[in-house]
Amino acid sequence: MVTIKDVAQDAGVAVGTVSKVINGQHVSEKNRKKVEDSIRKLGYQINYYAKGFKMQKTFTAAVIVPDVRNPFFSEWVYYLEQAFFRHGYKIFLCNTQEDGEKEEYYFKMAVQNKVDGIVCISYQEKETPVSEMVPVISLDRHFEQRISCICSDNYHGGELAAMKMIEGGSRELVYIRSGSMISGETLKRGIGFADYCKKKKIHCRELFLGEEKESIQKRRKLYEKEIRDFVKQHTRKGKPDFDGIYTSTDWLGGIVLSVLSSQGISIPDQVQLVGHDGLLDQASGEYILSTIVQPVKELAEKSVELLLEKMKGTEIEPITMLPVTF
Amino acid sequence: MVTIKDVAQDAGVAVGTVSKVINGQHVSEKNRKKVEDSIRKLGYQINYYAKGFKMQKTFTAAVIVPDVRNPFFSEWVYYLEQAFFRHGYKIFLCNTQEDGEKEEYYFKMAVQNKVDGIVCISYQEKETPVSEMVPVISLDRHFEQRISCICSDNYHGGELAAMKMIEGGSRELVYIRSGSMISGETLKRGIGFADYCKKKKIHCRELFLGEEKESIQKRRKLYEKEIRDFVKQHTRKGKPDFDGIYTSTDWLGGIVLSVLSSQGISIPDQVQLVGHDGLLDQASGEYILSTIVQPVKELAEKSVELLLEKMKGTEIEPITMLPVTF
Predict the structure, then answer these.
(1) Tens digit of pLDDT for each residue in A246-301?
(2) Which among A52, A146, B18, B105 would be 20 to 30 A from B144, CA to CA?
(3) Residue A189 contacts residue A158 (beta carbons within 8 Å)
(4) What's residue B23's pLDDT?
(5) Cβ distance B95 to A77 under 8 Å?
(6) Which chain A residues have a beta carbon less than 8 Å from that of B77?
(7) What dihedral angle (degrees, nearest 10) is formed by the CA atoms of A250, A251, A256, A257?
């Protein structure tokens, strides 16, 4: 049986340092790495049960997302798991399929299984009552009471998209968004975009594609049709009356891309296109399109950090915002 | 507090039927759906702790994958979670990053947290000792002793790829594969391919890209270079001396696609290209390339079914194979 002393000896640090790493307390990056390497090398097993008993903790967290197949969410889950792992936590993965009932079921399951905290992407209108019982961090959605929100700077993302296209020569802009999948913070993308256009006296329209009630496959078809109709309606003799499109997500951007291509409209010569998220194409490993990049890894790491603080009872800001890049 | 009786009443079935659904026993699909709908509707909470105590079960399973960001694995995890959910199970998600030590750490963690079973994609050479203590199902990798393997029909996948390209007119085939990420079952893709070519007296070469020791980003660059060198070496005046390529994964197929395009070689006119896995492009929702499709959803559902059988102590086949399609 490998003990904490063996780890300390192998890592060449004090027993207290190992203990700090295990308890998620601050030590230097160098020492943390040494200790983590030794823990892995020796196969040291933290006795979570004994430990949990003493500390009233289970070292588990629940990660609630709509659908891990969405590449943005799978990156999000991956980096959360890595960050939790470094702090000795395991995660329950829950896919809600954007179903409010299933989401609430998972919130309750998490509490019943005595998780120490929850990180969620919530589709609910109201804050879950579970947040009274366990610390919760929410991505992109700000609730009024106990849940803390983390997000990237959506407003500035919208501004950046407008700025880049105006610099690139666009004068007739369109913002395309779908019904507020996650209302709240992401709406600010469009507001930042519109505000910047107004400031620069550039004309800007919005195409709103309706609520996201259907399955993702059906939605794609619906949106594709709506976008095609819009493009056709605004194109005369192969010339569109707009020259820049910003979409609220890269996924939507991908649909716009294929519609414009099929209509023989060239990008970026005739129309500049900017998405939002920073998804990478699986085949090429490059961005699908010009995009406002959310710092997914940093968002995940910060979420775990905030959650651990919250578990300790520290008051944290209702909203924590990280910067985006073009 | 919602009870099992409330669920039975709402669903219009007997209490025994609800109990069977909760315990993962067989009931008709119709009744299962009714019960599941009522459980969700009423927010019925199975008392796992009391139940677990009585049954010596925790209703948790561990899902161990290399990296959930890989779209094949994220689909796999998604469908596993759905299937486990239907049986009242929660899952721990573990990303090993193809690191044997981390994988073993997670196996031990799973046992320590008293999971009822594990579904893994293992990169280890040897069977984990953990399999003595808890039922384990492995995707695509067949171990000798206690772990049961599930896979799709890789050999026939290789045959199908060869058949389709030969039917399409190809006479000089190349099989490109990377170092056995998961040795064992996936190697049969190349064997099925070569066997079919031999039977049809079609010439067939193999390009082996070496071991997967680097990070995925580095690997992409290395493989891209190797493939480009191969293509250049085998192309004279814009004419390649091969007219069909089969890759062991769609991910590799994507790299081949971009190399061929950059060399001005047209697909499928000059060279037919077939991948393996059945990945969908995020932007278009269509297959990235012609491909041998693995039935991911069915593989996941079957894995959970087999694991539940194994938990009950039922002997199951060492390998279970599901069909592939083109």
Answers:
(1) 998 888 898 898 899 888 898 888 999 999 888 776 556 677 788 888 888 999 99
(2) B105
(3) yes
(4) 67
(5) no
(6) 68, 93
(7) 70
**Chain A nearest-CA residue for B36:** A102
Q: What is the CA radius of gyration of chain B?
A: 23
* Residue A146 to residue A163: CA distance in whole angstroms: 36
Residue B168 has what DSSP assignment?
Answer: T
Evaluate whether B126 touches B142 at the Cβ level (below 8 Å).
Answer: no
Q: DSSP secondary-structure letter at A69?
A: T
pLDDT confidence of residue A45: 67
Scan residues 266-285 of B and list those with Cβ closer than 8 Å to A.
279, 281-285
User: What does the block give as tokens for A168?
Assistant: 């690139």
Rounded to whole angstroms, the maximal C-alpha distance in chain A is 77
Q: d(Cα B178, Cα A15) in Å, to the nearest integer?
A: 43
B113 has a chain A CB within 8 A of its CB: yes
Question: Does any CB of chain B come closer than 8 Å to the CB of residue A38?
Answer: no
For residue B59, with 0-12 CB atoms within 10 Å meaning exposed, 13-18 middle and 19 or more buried, which class applies?
buried
Residue B236 gets which letter from DSSP? E
- Convert A243-292 into a string of H (helix), E (strand) and C (coil): CEEEECCHHHHHHHHHHHHHCCCCCCCCCEEEEEECCECCCCCCECCCEE
Helix, coil or strand: residue A230: helix
A107 three-state secondary structure: helix
* A&B contacts, CB < 8 Å: 125
Retrieve residue B28's tokens. Answer: 């008709």
Are the CB atoms for B79 and B296 separated by under 8 Å?
yes
For B84, the token pair is 């486990």
Instruction: Tell me the longest C-alpha to C-alpha distance in chain B.
Output: 77
pLDDT of residue A267: 87
Q: Is A210 left (phi over 0), alpha (psi -120 to 50) or beta?
A: left
Phi, psi of B183 (to 5 degrees): -70, 180
Residue A94 and residue B92: Cα distance in Å, rounded? Answer: 9
d(CA A191, CA A239): 28
Say whether A210 sits in a helix, a strand or coil. Answer: coil
Asked casually if ipTM beats, i.e. exceeds, 0.90, the reply is no
Instruction: Report the alpha-carbon distance of residue B74 to residue A65 in Å, rounded.
Output: 13
Per-residue model confidence as pLDDT tens digits over A196-243: 999 999 999 998 887 666 666 677 888 889 999 999 999 988 899 999
B321 SS3 class = strand
Residues in B touching A96 (Cβ below 8 Å): none
Give the residue carrying structure tokens 């395009």.
B261
Query: What does pTM read for this prediction?
Result: 0.77
Confirm if A72 and A277 have CB atoms less than 8 A apart: yes
Question: A147, A157, A111: which is closest to A127 by C-alpha?
Answer: A147
Number of other residues whose CB lies within 10 A of the CB of residue A261: 11
Q: Which residues of B touch A109 (CB under 8 A)?
A: 45, 90
Q: What share of chain A is helix, strand, coil (3-state, %, to 5)?
A: 45, 20, 35
The pair of structure tokens assigned to A240 is: 């569109």
DSSP A98-123: T-HHHHHHHHHHHHHTT-SEEEE---
d(CA B139, CA B135): 14
* Nearest residue, CB atoms, B43 vs list A43, A108, A113: A108
Helix, strand, coil % over all residues of chain B, rounded to 5:
45, 20, 35
CB contact under 8 A, A63 and B93: yes
